[in-house]
Amino acid sequence: MTAVTAVTAVRSAPASVAVVGAGAIGGSWVALALAHGLRVTASDPAPGAEERLREAVRAHLAAIADDPDAALTRLDFEADPTDAAGDVDLVLEAGPERIDAKRELFAVLDAAAPADVLLASSSSGFGPSAFQDGCRHPERVVVTHPFNPPHLVPLVEVVGGRATSEQAVQAAMAAMRRLGRRPVRVRAELPGHVVNRLQAALWREAYDLVRRGAISVADLDAAVASGPGLRWALLGPIATQHLSGGPGGLDHVLEHLGPPMVDWWADLGDPELDADLVAALVGGVREELGGREAAVRAARDAALVELLATKERWGLDATARPDAGGER
């Protein structure tokens, strides 16, 4: 379905937002928006969704808001997404990762929201072209894929579809900055966007190394977290590689390590995710964490807050440089 009338302007400085879907990602979006002073209307038809959401949001706000109680006064709840989307400046969808559900939901949101309101999906793998064609105004439909948990991790991938206007993409970039995020523009619709594809490439080799018996799950996690992961948390993989080359930079690295790296690529694994490998991975990580998942998650989130503050103090905070990177 094509647009009835193309929208020439999309709101880019939201004061209010609807978050549709009150699961883990939706609750994190809600807390983030509240912490940045926005009024939020959340929506989820599941029984007990409002109570679970408020409990989760209160916990998130404790880490990012000066006055969680005051922030929570700006949160409303509507079970019906039509009621949530009717009078806001931005709609963030965080529903199930099923294409049929997204197509149906975006048709509902498109009919309910004013025509100049951006409709943004949190989809971790679908591009907008997969579900925007059922909308009257597909040009205002984008993906704003956050990195979990969105209230702490700044990254958001912004993806336009075949019918998405350039103005809508730019409005999405601006709206994400309004929420204190670091948006990166993904210029092609790819399964998994960019960052999940990078993660998948690492996981594929990690899983294969475990399958081969080359390393245990615990030692593999330690190897990444105590080695390259430390550097990647401060700079990306290509900038890190450039700095490792000394005065010659990336030219020197690729000249001397490029040929052997090509040989490594040829030897990378292509594992089957069969029952034996799944059992080895699940058993390995359970042994590694030893039932401490909740405590480790809480410690990780607290450390993320401190890490982001450290990056900002040392001038390595990309969110402070909205024009950094290739968004143009």
Structural shape: globular
* SSE succession: EHEHHEHEHEEEHEHHHHHHH
Q: Extract low-pLDDT stretches.
A: 322-328
Count of individual beta strands: 8
CATH fold category name of the largest domain: Rossmann fold
Seen as an oligomer or otherwise, the chain set is single chain
Helix content: 40-55%
Strand content: 5-15%
Euclidean distance between termini CA atoms: 29 Å
**Name of the CATH homologous superfamily of the largest domain:** NAD(P)-binding Rossmann-like Domain
Integer tally of domains? 2
Largest sheet: 8 strands, mixed
Overall residue-averaged pLDDT value: 94
- Radius of gyration, in Å, reads 21 Å
> By helix and strand content, what is the structural category?
alpha/beta
CATH class identity of the largest domain: Alpha Beta
Just name the CATH architecture of the largest domain. Answer: 3-Layer(aba) Sandwich
Give the neighbour order of strands across the main sheet.
3-2-1-4-5-6-7-8
List keywords for this structure.
single chain; 328 residues; alpha/beta; Rossmann fold; N-(1-d-carboxylethyl)-l-norvaline Dehydrogenase, domain 2; 2 domains; eight-stranded mixed beta sheet; 13 helices; 12% strand; globular; disordered C terminus
